[in-house]
Sequence to fold (584 residues):
Amino acid sequence: MRSKIAGRVWKFGTNVDTDQIIPAEYLVTGDPAELAAHAFEKARPEFAGEVREGDIVVAEENFGCGSSREHAPRALIGAGISCVVAKSFARIFYRNSINIGLPLVEAAIVADDGDNLEIDFKSGIVKNTTKGVEASFPPTPAFLQKLIDAGGLVEYTKTQIKNMGM
Amino acid sequence: MTMTIAEKILAKKAGKSSVEPGDMVEAEIDYVMVNDITGLPAFEVFEKFDCQPLREKTILIPDHYVPNKDVASAEQARAMQMFAKKYDMPNYFPVGTCGVCHQVMIEEGFVAPGRLIIGADSHTCSYGALGAFGTGVGSTEAASAMALGKLWFKVPESQKYTVKGSLEKYVMGKDIILHIIGEIGVDGALYKSMEFYGSAIESLPLADRISISNMAIEAGAKAGIIPPDEKVFNYLKDRVRGDYAPLYADSDADYSEVYEYDASEISATVAKPSLPENTAPASELSHITVDQAYLGSCTNGRIEDLRVAAEILKGRKIASDTRMIVVPATKRVFEQALSEGLIKIFLDANAYVSGPTCGACLGGYMGVLAKGERCISSTNRNFLGRMGHKESEVYLANPAVVAASAITGRITDPSEIE
Fold:
């Protein structure tokens, strides 16, 4: 994972559910690019057409609530989203994102659509350079950092399988 | 060191004498389940591991888009069939033998007290009704667990919910959980384990308890656990696979929050669009007309739910501008409903009855809503466009309210038409 990223904001509210991120009728593939074509189709129809590589999703509380569909973070990765910043995350969405390598930041940062954000994972600071405000966020728990550093759960599992001599 | 049920199960499965909230543990899982939607990505990930799956621990249940709704879903279901064949999987339940995955997991005896079960479906928390720690995971972690038989968990804080007293007629387990979510909100139990106690919970049949645990996720919870009792042990006789050992909370266990409710104050409750926390008594919504009434799902598709609805529908007809769709959760539920004459009652009332599928609950097929349409539904989510067009609406309710509303064509508290 890069230690610093910067990107343009897509702002969402509270309780953004996984049906909004990727509606269930498109859950017939696991391919990030195919899923990205329908990301936020009902909630923000312009998203799929206008999203750019490196954009950042910012939301309020409980982002990613609802279904366990890993298709939700996959769709965001497919859309080129570099990070999701929210006041809090729903737990399965959080796990899925960590496991497949979508960076998440739990922070309360004031932002609107189109603002520019800079995130420094080392110092734990997220800056809204458009508005000139910033917020701090806690470091990732050690175990999860180990998982992320291993390259996500897939690589971690491969190592475990090797170690177990399976 | 005192522990809650969730802590005891995670400690045992992690091989530790105790755990506390916030601990990261790697725990042995008893079973891992995937459905047709979450299965495909899991199989793709699994193939990267170049190993054999843990055959006895892995359960494959196609239910969301089977019978296949289109070519893409057909390919997805076939991927599961091919995976099952390739690895000679003993616990694959194809169309015609099964139904909605969580009810199958329970009926087939995979779920039992003290077990740690993960499923690539958020409503895996249903298993808490039998004293298990069941929790939803993603496809990648399901694949990892199919290979390793273990997974990482953050030990959640636990909340204690006590519901005392007795419920009025036509008020069910569904209303208890809708009422609680209405009070604490859709993130009121975020990252936490809910535990349910009290005389009202004890007197509930297992079916209603499953509805409660099933919707713990709608409050953001990791698990929704009810201490197992004789009702659970009796249900598991001649059904459970293998041995099991119930675990109970210590009497002085630590809970992050404690809530108490009086069951007699809970009425037949409806969650209005577009969040399950948006609740109101059904009796206050009688002006709202419905185009569709849906009875089914892992939340309320059991035989007990069908009996309640059939009792109300018997000898009556569905309103002319409303359609009713009845979907027994599993083949066993369907068979039982047939033998009890319930299916005949539904058909006589002009309800449409189909075989088991999750289809309409998540807006897939078999009951999708048009623009502007409204559905009273025994399911678990009423998010924006959940059952169809983004301008359609879902109102969540218990099976009795669904049946009563189907008859009048508007949201109806069943006591109104007795």
Residues 153-164 of chain A form the longest helix (12 residues). The longest strand of chain A covers residues 4-11.
